[in-house]
Amino acid sequence: QGVLGTGQPSCLLALRLPAARGECRSRRAGKRRAQTAMASGVPRTRVYFRYAGDRVGPGEEVRVVGDCEELGNWKPAAGVALRPDAVEQQCFTSKAVALPIGKQVQYKYVVCSRTSDACRWELQEENRTVVPTGQRLLVEDDRGRYRHVEYGKPRPHKPPSAGDACSECIVAESLTSMPRLQSFEKKLKKDKETQVGAEDTVFAVFRTLPVRLERSSAGEWIAEADRDSEQFNFKVVSMMARSLPEDLIKSVKFVGHPGVFTADPEEQRKITEVLAPLNCIPVFLDEQVATLTLEFCHRFLWPVMHNMKVFDDNVKAHDQDNRNHHKFDEVQWRTYQVFNRTYAEAVEAAMSPDSKPLVWVHDFYLLLLPRALSLRCPWATIGLYLHCAFPSSEVFRCISPREEILQSMLSSKIITFQIFEYARHFLSCCQLLLNATYYFQGAGVLCIDHDSESVIVRTDHFVIPFLDLVERMNNTTISQQAKAIQQQFGDKLIFASIDGDEPFAGIVHKFRAFQRFMNECQHAHRVGLYQHILARRQDDGQKESEIVTEVKRLADEINKAHGRPGQPAVIVRMGEVTVDERLSILHAANVLFDTSINDGLNLHPFLFCVAHSKDQKGSMIISEFCGCSSVLTGARKVNPYNTQATVDALHAAYMQDAEARSGGSLESKEYTRKFKTDISYVSTQRLSNWVRTNLSELKQAASKQSGPVKGLGAGCKVLSMERGYRHLPEEAVLHHYRESKSRVILLDNEGTLAPDRRSVIRPYGAQDTLDRIGCDPDPQVLECLQALCDDRSNTVVVVSGRSKSLCDKWFGQVKDLGMCAEHGFYWVPAGKGKQRPGVNRWLSMQEHAHSEDDDWKRIAATLMQQYVKRVQGSVLEAKGSAVAWNYRKVGAQVLANEIALQLTRFLDPTNGPESLMYGYPVVVVNGKGYVEVKRSDVDKGVAADRVLAEVKERVGHVDFVLCIGDDRSDEDMFEVVNLSAKREGLESIAEEPIPADSPKALTPSIWSSSGPGLRIGRKGSLTLEEFNPADMADSSRYYTVTVGRKPSKAGYFLKDVQEVSDLLQKLAIQARAAGLQRFSSMPMLVRPEDADSD
After folding, report:
1. How many CB atoms are closer than 10 A to CB 193?
2. What pLDDT is attached to residue 183?
3. Distance from C-alpha of 683 to C-alpha of 91, rounded to nearest angstrom
4. For the whole model, what pTM was predicted?
5. E strands of 31-176, at which residues?
6. CA distance 319 to 317
7. Beta 771-773 vs 414-417: how paired, if at all?
8. Strands across the sheet with 570-574, in order?
9. Alpha-helical segments (H) within 326-455
10. Among 986, 966, 993, 992, which residue's Cα sits nearest to residue 1049?
11. SS3 category, 447
12. DSSP H helical ranges for 893-1018
């Protein structure tokens, strides 16, 4: 009945209407009711009634009447009058009626005459009800009519008039929050504008082209499009080429091998010219390279992708799971790299740098292509679609080129998998092997950060060209072949399947289950199995594979036990089949029987739905390990390793068919309905829409490169940064360093000055002692720090979370270096010389708080010790200002992260009295591999603020700050430096990044002198000729830098520790040059241009 709830009217409209006797009487009654309500002191809600119903004639008005005094106590003459809308005359709205909060009110609408007591009630029999809540409530009884008019056409606005006698009759125009709706509509419009279209250039890269290339009788090359019915392979590239949307036919260019090998440049030119009208670009390969690459892909990479872990020629031949699969071959791997580089060269030669091409790479043959192409053509937007499965981390981590493959895949802007399970495996591999982090953006976009880039990971399974295949079903050849198969079985129920000669096809499991079913089923004589095996070509001299041998043996046993003369129980056929032959086999079958162990998506269940799209009869038994099982909800799911469960599914499918022939039970009708639902699902999936959707997603990824990145930082804290390539501008840093007189340099240790290789060990035989080991800083880094500290204008401080002793061990010999240990709880001021034996230089924030600290530390440590006992590999760390649970060495990081999040929530005092740390002056930090409880007045931000305050007190001001870190704890430093920059009237964060698709972002020149901020493109360096110090006059001298690109409060980023080291070396050169100039009578011994170079 349209009760909306509370809300504030977004705008009010006053209406002045002609007064009449009845109307004035109603107004006076309304005033009296309002005065009485105000005097009563009862909390009330201002309720507006909106109604659309019977047509109202001249001299009539609509009133709302109810069971309370405010609504006239069911007396129409004392009811509240409603006014017609200015645009839609059949919509009526009341003025505000003050009703008691929380008390149910019954009411109805009545049409009354203004000149008499005549009235007619609305036709609704039951009374309407409303319970007033909040300050204002809008009751909508107009069936949405008012909203339709409001959003469909502009509504005239008439402001209240001071002389309006009816100014109290205020009508709420809308209580809907329009800005949110408008923002959503704007986003939809923007997404629609970024849909791929005829104006785009798309390169679809496959291993082969969707054409047949052959010579004519005259010796000329002739090319024609693939016809699937004449091809043995069910080729994805051929189906896609035939199903392109009309507006993309000329935009999409296919890149792949033409199927012939030639090294003659003239022949290559002719082939290229022949293929050009078909929008095909050939990749000319060396025949040996192609042969070795296919062998590497089929015998090594393909099994890996399907979760096969052991690849060794020494495995015994009877082990069918490893038959015909080789161990990793370095020669073939190098050939695979050459193969992918050749494709990259062909794509690069075909594209123009002035365009913004979309490159869509397909399948595991070309996994190295994204990396090779991104290095050659950084302006291209690359997407990768993987048609096969993706293995778990337990399998993928075993192969030698694991990092190279993952890094190449992450060179794409979008990576698309068939189902979410494969995407989950990929994310686990990236997190385990590359330490990459993933997060969700708005609208459920899954992203993974690696190598200073954010890559979108999505799932969208391939679809078949349903309409084309249904049309092909009208071919009489298909129906004749189907009848021939049915005649071989007579009136039996036919189970059928089409599988490859591969271990993960599960054919042997299928025949063992079928044999048991036939032995146990009393209706075995009414059931038959048709199995077609897509046998591979044997290169090792074997006549047939061991799988085929075992299948034939089982088939003979079944036929001997249950076959009849002329009607075998099992028929096994081998060889390649055309699309028409596949459809005929599936059309003849009553039940599709699939027991694949791990076979990717598997398109045959979709083809089965096509084959039975007209009769709408059939059922499917599908392995739960098959990719399509997650989308075909009507099929029976089985575990092929559970033979008895498979037998039960076979029996259930037989009983369903038997019951359907006899009228059908409720269960059989339900499965029939589900099968029809699956057919409906397959029929609604259009291959042309699939192509457009994937390409549009790729185009939108390109357009969003300069948009904001929002995600969960360490500790599940929402952070954001602009996606413009804000690589730290080293030339600007060096320029500002030279021009400044008072400098502060704040540096994190591990992950910034040295690689982050922290781990925690328990010495042999120790009970409670824990040592944290890590990577010592490089001697060259220490030399750079010493050179910077030697300059009296510099204040250099290393801010670490490590202990005092370890900081002394690593940095104690650097003279005048400031140090902060345990996030600033202990510190050594800069300028205190070197560490000396027996001399304690450390200051502490803790002087008289030992007893207070012991309380919360003991509680936090007791809880964390329980987690240590239950999470293998985790340890407890106790520091002067904090207690931490460290889980860096836990194998299952995904699970450990969830446990860490739960521990954080339980400890966090901001969660209220239920928190264990509630009332204590502590904060809880969820960092990279640890959960830490520390004093609330101790963090790196406090340490940075203390350093800046000391320098300002000593010299008066700070005109250059460089702050670099990589962890969640460093965000506090960034926040303090950013705030200090604002106080100084500067901006530490560049205001407007250069869009990633602009020419400046793609060239070595990255600066733009327009605007007050420093604008940064993709690269981080300038040539000396391009650098202009005048451009730096108004830019910031406060730099906050995070190591690795991720959501952060920092204004810039450096890719890794090596880039930090390079920057320190350049700053050290500047410091040494300045030191030499102080003791020289010459104006300058070293030019800045020479000092900048290595």
Report:
1. 10
2. 60
3. 43
4. 0.65
5. 44-52, 60-66, 80-84, 91-94, 97-100, 105-113, 119-121, 128-130, 136-141, 170-174
6. 5
7. unpaired
8. 570-574, 527-534, 493-500, 591-593, 619-623, 636-638
9. 330-350, 369-376, 393-396, 402-409, 420-434
10. 966
11. strand
12. 893-907, 940-955, 971-983
Model pLDDT, residue 1001: 36
Q: Indicate the DSSP class of residue 564.
A: B
Phi-psi region of 267 (alpha: psi -120 to 50; beta: other; left: phi over 0): alpha
d(CA 484, CA 686): 31
pLDDT given for residue 995 in this prediction: 38
CA distance 1032 to 1076: 26
Let me know: does 952 contact 975? Beta carbons within 8 Å.
no
Task: Say how many Å lie between the first and final Cα of the chain, rounded.
Answer: 77
Please report the pLDDT score of residue 55 as a whole number: 74
Is the pLDDT at 320 greater than 90? The verdict is no
Tell me the backbone φ, ψ of residue 721, rounded to 5 degrees.
Answer: -155, 160
The C-alpha angle with vertex 900 and arms to 899 and 901, in degrees rounded to 5, equals 90
User: Can you read off the two tokens belonging to residue 898?
Assistant: 């969830």
Amino acid at 335: T
Radius of gyration over every alpha carbon of the chain, rounded to an integer in angstroms: 38
Higher pLDDT, 62 or 184: 62
Residue corresponding to tokens 């391009």 = 1026
Fill in the amino acid letter for 927. G
Return the pLDDT at 1084. Answer: 46
Provide the pairing of β-strand 527-534 with 493-500: parallel
Q: What is the mean pLDDT of residues 977-981?
A: 89
* CA-to-CA dists, residue 741 to 63, 745, 1082, angstroms: 80, 13, 20
Q: What separation in angstroms does the CA of 376 have from each of 354, 373, 633?
A: 14, 5, 44
**Helix 579-588 × helix 476-489 angle, to 10°:** 40
Task: Tokens 């051929």: give the residue.
Answer: 238
Q: How do residues 1029-1071 score in pLDDT, each as one tens digit?
A: 545 444 568 999 998 877 788 889 898 889 999 999 999 999 8
Helices (H), 244-283: 265-275
In one letter, which amino acid is 857? K
Tell me the residue type at 737. Answer: Y
Closest CA to 408 of 474, 455, 468: 455
Long-range contacts of 920-924 (CB under 8 A, 24+ apart): 920/855, 920/856, 922/856, 922/860
* Residue at 1088: amino acid letter: P
Dig out the tokens for 365 from the structure: 């043959």
Q: What number of residues does the chain have? A: 1094
How is 732-776 classified by DSSP, letter by letter?
A: HHHHHHHH-SSEEEEE-SBTTTB----EEE--TT-SS--EEE-PP
Q: What is the mean pLDDT of residues 275-296?
A: 95
Q: What is the 3-state secondary structure (H, E, C) of 897-927?
A: HHHHHHHHHHHCHHHCCCCCCCCCCEEEEEE
Identify whether the C-beta of residue 439 lies closer than 8 Å to the C-beta of residue 711.
Answer: yes
What distance in Å separates the CA atoms of residue 602 and residue 498, rounded to the nearest whole number?
Answer: 10
Integer Cα distance of 768 and 759 in angstroms: 16
Residue 325 β-bridge partners: none
Sign of CA dihedral 782, 783, 785, 789: positive
Cα(369)–Cα(355) distance, rounded to whole angstroms? 20
Q: Which are the contacts of 386, defined by CB distance < 8 A and separation ≥ 6? A: 363, 364, 415, 416, 417, 418, 422
For residues 601 and 462, the answer to whether their CB atoms sit within 8 Å is: yes
Query: What's the rounded Cα separation, in Å, for the pair 99 and 108?
Result: 15
Q: What is the 3-state secondary structure (H, E, C) of 473-512?
A: CCCHHHHHHHHHHHHHHCCCEEEEEEEECCHHHCHHHHHH
Q: What is the pLDDT of residues 745-761, one digit of tens each?
A: 999 988 888 886 654 44
